[in-house]
Amino acid sequence: MLRRVWLAAALLIIATQAAAAGFPPAYKPSVIEPKGVPESYEFDLTAALARARAEKKRLYIYLGANDCPFCRKYEAFLDANAGALAPHFAKDYLVYDLRSTLKAQGERLRFRVGDKSWPYKEFMATLGDERARQLVYPSVWLLSADGKPLMQMPAGTGTFETVPEQLEILNLVQ
Amino acid sequence: MKTIPMSRRAALRSSASLLMAGASMPTLAAVGGLPSAAHDDSSPEWERLAAKLFPGKRVQAGSGIVQLTAPLRAAYGASVPVKVVSKLAQTPSLYVRRLHIVVDKNPSPIAAVIDLTTEAGQADFETRLRVDEYSHVRVVSELSNGELHTDSRYVKTSGGCSAPPNRDALHLIGRTMFKLPAGVTMNAPTTADVTVIHPNDTGFELNNVTVMFIPPHFVRSIKVSFAGKKIFDADLDFSLSENPTLRFNFVPRGPGELRAEVVDSKETQFVGTLAVPGIG
């Protein structure tokens, strides 16, 4: 009986954590789940870019992992400051939340736009992004509606986990 | 307070302990690590370091003699691109004699001390630095007339979840290469890169497999000459990124050999050369 209680409690904790993972709902993120799992984790950005063009907005693309403590930290920061930040996101950006795992490294992590698909490094090279060298979770890309990077972003999110710094990022302060 | 003159090497060695000693000192100026520090702010670490490196001397900021460029946020804290531009040419009457590159908050803040000659033509340098946390990066340009000029940038870095660095090329350690990215221009400053394949281990990094700290092992000095004449001698530290690279200038006045003599912290010596042809 005691074992069943512990098991139920453990499952509840796991379920709660799983539900908590991801960009907070206050930012109205569109979730992109990977395809081809578990052999590969391919994220299709085609619809995101089409929508950005149609709505004349920028893309805030967030790659998080369900087993990444730094991702939970950033998401918790966003959640705690949604009142101050969500309107600034909504003004210029469409938020896309790519749901990955730390296992998705190297060739297994892929991005698709239309009929083209690239592994992480090649996609970064296509964007001219210095982060091709090493994948870090979480990662954020700021893209224009035509898919061009708006500025070189840092690996991780630790340098914009205060409200003023998050606003620096949204305002493309370099 | 009595100050003791230090050699450059002594300054490099003692810079880590300077920080430790200063941990409990009162705040004298804007503290690094703040989200909104200004690029030209001072820091307690810098105040202490400047007093040791340049005792009794005035270090002029905002004079326009030297300019430092670095991104507010680099892609990786372990590889922050920095560029030093000198606003005066290297002429015998007045030239940049020495450049000091400092990262205030690093465990060993003096990243490089570069002794220059007029053979450089133009005292511009580019490299990549490790920046351990939110910190000012500074350059101090010491002119041949004794004046000191400085410029600084505030840089924000942090970590994340990532795979360990690639260490598959250990057999190449010490390989020293030159590149001439824009070709050769006779009798004018010509840009060159010197790169040493080297992990430049800090001693603060954990091996994920053994769970032991990787011992420090880094390039300690690079001496570069052309046709037997010194261009610069650089005293370096693990604040330079893996595979340390310096972009510099030299003035070729005919064919000759670019030569780099490298020593690392295990006293291992490496040499790299490049034959530079004459033109015409």
Question: What does this 3D model show about the protein?
Answer:
The complex is a heterodimer of chains A (174) and B (280). Chain A has six helices and eight strands. Chain A has 174 residues and is α/β, with parallel strands linked by helices. Chain A is globular, with a radius of gyration of 17 Å. Chain B is mostly beta strands and 280 residues long. Chain B has one domain (39-159, 168-276): Immunoglobulins (Immunoglobulin-like). Chain B is built from two helices and 16 strands. In chain B, the strands form three sheets. Chain B has a nine-stranded mixed sheet, covered by helices on one side. Chain B is globular and about 50 Å long. The N and C termini of chain B lie far apart (60 Å). The relative contact order of chain B is 0.16. The A-B interface holds A 65, 68-71, 102, 105, 129-131, 133-139, 152-160, 162, 164-165, 168, 173-174 and B 35-36, 71-77, 79, 134, 156-163, 165. β7 (136-137) of chain A pairs antiparallel with β9 of chain B.
Count of DSSP helices of chain A?
6
What is the string of helix and strand elements of chain A?
Answer: HEEHEHHEEEHEEH
Tally of individual helices of chain B: 2
Strand content of chain B: 35-45%
Instruction: Please estimate the helix content of chain B.
Output: under 10%
Please sum up the structure shown.
With 174 residues, chain A is of the alpha/beta class.
What topology emerges from the helices and strands here?
The complex is a heterodimer of chains A (174) and B (280).
Chain A: H1 2-20, E1 30-32, E2 41-44, H2 46-55, E3 58-65, H3 69-80, H4 82-92, E4 93-100, E5 109-113, E6 116-119, H5 120-127, E7 136-137, E8 139-143, H6 163-170
Parallel strand pairs in A: 1-4, 2-5, 3-4
Antiparallel strand pairs in A: 3-8, 5-6
Helix pairs in contact in A: 3-4, 4-6
Chain B: H1 8-21, H2 44-53, E1 59-61, E2 66-69, E3 80-86, E4 96-103, E5 110-116, E6 125-129, E7 135-143, E8 148-155, E9 161-162, E10 176-179, E11 190-196, E12 219-226, E13 229-236, E14 245-250, E15 256-264, E16 269-276
Parallel strand pairs in B: 1-8
Antiparallel strand pairs in B: 2-3, 3-6, 4-5, 4-7, 5-13, 7-8, 10-11, 11-14, 12-13, 12-15, 15-16
Helix pairs in contact in B: 1-2
